[in-house]
Amino acid sequence: MEEALARHDRFGEDFSKVFTIINSAEIPAVENSALYLFVGTSRAPDEASKYVRDRVAQNAQSSTLEDTLYSIHEELKVLSKKMTREDPMNLDPDIEAAIYERDGGRCFITGRTAGVRPMYIIPPSILEDKDLQPEGYLRPLLEVALTKESTEQMFSLLGSPGRENALKNLMLMEPSIRHSFRHGYFEIIKSPYLEPPYLPTDAPKSRNGGWWLQPIAPQAEMPQIIPYNNELYKAPSTINPSSHPLPAHLLLKTHGIVSHPLHTIRIEEQIKAGWPIEPEPKELNWFGRRLLQNLLLVIPNFARIRLYEFIYKVVEYWDPSQKGSHVKFLPLGLVLKKGRENTENEANALTLAEQYILISTPRLIDSVMINKTSGFILMTKVAGRSLSSILHRITWEELEQIGKDLANFVTELRRIPNTSNYLIADTQGGPVSDHRFFYQTWGPFKTVSGFTDRLLQDVKGARDKPPLSFLYEKTHKVYFTHSDIHMTNLFVTRGRLSGVVDWENAGFKPEYWEYIRAMWAYGAEKHAKCLYGSAFGDEYKEEYEAERYILRRCSWLL
Length: 558
Hints:
Blueprint: H1 2-8, H2 13-24, H3 29-41, H4 45-58, H5 65-84, H6 93-103, E1 117-120, H7 139-146, H8 148-159, H9 163-167, E2 170-173, H10 175-182, E3 186-190, E4 211-215, H11 249-273, H12 286-297, H13 301-318, E5 327-330, E6 334-339, H14 343-356, E7 364-371, E8 374-380, E9 385-386, H15 387-390, H16 396-413, E10 425-426, E11 432-433, E12 441-442, H17 448-455, H18 469-473, E13 478-481, E14 490-493, E15 496-500, E16 507-510, H19 513-519, H20 526-536, H21 541-553
Antiparallel strand pairs: 1-2, 3-4, 5-6, 6-8, 7-8, 9-14, 10-16, 11-12, 13-16, 14-15
Helix pairs in contact: 1-2, 2-3, 2-4, 3-4, 3-5, 3-11, 4-7, 5-11, 7-8, 16-20
């Protein structure tokens, strides 16, 4: 991750050094993530990076690295609580009447009227908070989060008299939305083009009018009352921009930034409470699956295709949150997936997994090709939640255990026999597919060197020198490979690996492929190093070095 940041951001190597410092500390995973977010989401990331590095350097003789980072983390939480607290609403009657008039007596987000009342975006009480004044101990932290200029502008706006300035810091909200916004579940985004010095004609035309909602990481969960597309019920407008101005972009952006640490507090509470016991899902048992399989077998292909297309449309109608997804979740624990040309390969991989793998995998109910490039798979849902969706509350110890579970899974995978005439092939003996190939298919191959030659076909560099030489010099066995054990595809229940999904690229590939494909999306990210390091150790570090070399020199890959 550090390398990616240094390569793609505008701040460069000095900015990225802070992530190396954070990763080198033995701190809880949630604290690691919180510090990453502080630096990465600051309006002045270069200054935030310098702030952390300077604090570490200044305290090097008196405190451990861990103690210094802990103190920064605790100060972030204090700052967040101060900046999001709920002040008493002792509004002037004229201001209160104006806010109801501007917002039409409706919640700014949902348009509902029940229980709506005004709320501040940023509590005016911070004007009197000595910790946030220029000499206060939290002021430097606030200024690197917002920039010094924005901090001064914020205090100036909050301290300015008049109804118009007060309205820029007020919205009508219903109780559940008010609670979610106050506690940092989402940020209200207002395009900067909607305010001076820009003219109304400068704003890009969009359906949402330059306003939308953004879940705040790391626990990006939106209240169910909010529309699935994260849009406000209508584009905000006002009867008079001068006398009844809309909420200020500066204050909305400030709230979004200072809300991040609130998640840390909740996550720490969740970790302390332990994993909740979730109810058993209602799903088909073995007999029900077999009955459904046999029923579908007697239906012609064309009729099943029409049936699945109909189900696809019905699901999107009844559950708009699934619109646009190629995977649809159905009642009774069933899943309908519209795949690509490798649909048959995925269906066959699921059959093999059911025969050889102990850990939960989707159970195949039916598959049918629509044409040569697409098809449907009906299968069962895997229990648990994707690791990527709960990574924010996974501890290092749990992540290491999941890595060990993953190692056992890979061992089971490697027992699946290859019955084709090719050494490297998909589950049916045909060409191998992989997201790494960007929807191309390669092979099949009778030798590992043939696969390696194809891998390096578009790469400039000496094959007889490291790191590319590692791919030829080392002897690599070929095993059955999932090819995409990304954290999104790993499902976890109560801190243990409970299932693996998305088998479309499975096949027989060189033994190192599973590891380098898993690490491909993460780089040096600490969670990935902990997880996949626990599963694979350092066995394929040379091959991973070669893969990074390839990615840096093959422009069509990235």
